[in-house]
Amino acid sequence: MTMLYDMTVPAYKNGLGALSAQLDKALARGAENGVGEMQLIVARLAPDMFPLASQVRFSCLQAIQPPTRLGAIGAPTLTDDATDFAGLQAQIAATLTWLDTVDAATLDADPDRAVSFDLPNGMAFDMTARTYVRDWAQPQFYFHLVAAYSILRHMGIPLGKVDYVGYMMAYLRPGTTPSV
Fold it and tell me: Which InterPro entries does the annotation name (predicted)?
């Protein structure tokens, strides 16, 4: 059974793929309405929140950290925010490429094994792999993914739910698409 793997890697690939498509749409829309790439890169929802470039990097890092903490190796290093959309897409592509190499058996070896980590502010956490994935890894990934989506919406990019969960179209029952 591939419980922890199935809860993480496929979800991260879906989310990052959707984020990549959102960035493509944002770049095209920006070109149409005169919103520069730099305006989007530095946009943020509130003064004390990170800008789009950081949210994209953090989305990638939040897809890298859980498999790494659960034993995966060879992860890309993303130490700096990208300065343009090509750089944002490169971070996503590097993360997706690496996620394709993650071994399910490694992640699922022992869902009850200890996982510990420290935050830069001095807080330290101790939990099982299962609770780490459920209570930390997934919420952190989706927080940054939604923050990036929200920044793009805030900047006038016409995104909707289908842009956030477009991968769901693979599961659409034939004949149930609403007519416009």
Answer: DinB/YfiT-like (IPR034660), DUF1993 (IPR018531)
